[in-house]
Prior knowledge:
alpha+beta; Jelly Rolls; 2 domains; 10 strands; globular
Amino acid sequence: xxxxxKPAVDLYSLVASVNGVMRDIKFRKDQVVFAQGDPAxxxxxxxxxxxxxxxxxxxxxxxVIAILGAGDFCGEGCLGGQxxxxxxxxxxxxxxxxxxxxxxxxxxxxxSAEFSDLFTTHLLSRNIRVEADLVNLLFNSSEKRxxxxxxxxANFGKDGQPEPILPAISQETLAEMIGTTRSRVxxxxxxxxxxxxxxYNGHIEVxxxxxxxxxxxx
Length: 218
């Protein structure tokens, strides 16, 4: 088992210990955290809940490009020079989210080695995930793309047991995220259930055996 260097404090405690940089906000389900086109002047840290990142085209079509949960940041683009938000972030469940002003985050990155280390790790992990998502979209079948998405949303591979996927994630949203149709998602979801890879019980329960779909070369 690989052993990494454990941070001295968790990120929430580290952020909470710095006066004047944090504002704890409660968001209800379906409430907008920030909207595409808003000024990009802050970063958000998800303490509890789940949010979706959605992009709206000029024709008015919305596409969900990511779902984030506790421990994730969103809105980091402002640190790279983005003046306005390039996407909207919307709460999928009742959520607790911390708002950090851009200037305060920049100061923390300069003054706190612990925060800089943790934030850099987050950015690298996000970059690895984006690259893996792109490879998955380009080279895997829609069935494997759906299996990978379900395992990701269930936090497979992280500490503890996989988490149930919330019923708020519709088949239309799953189809948008893997680049296929709702009918194909419905077909594969039924197939996964018949094979015992997932189960419906008020929410979608993902079992580790779903990994077989990704590992199968057929």
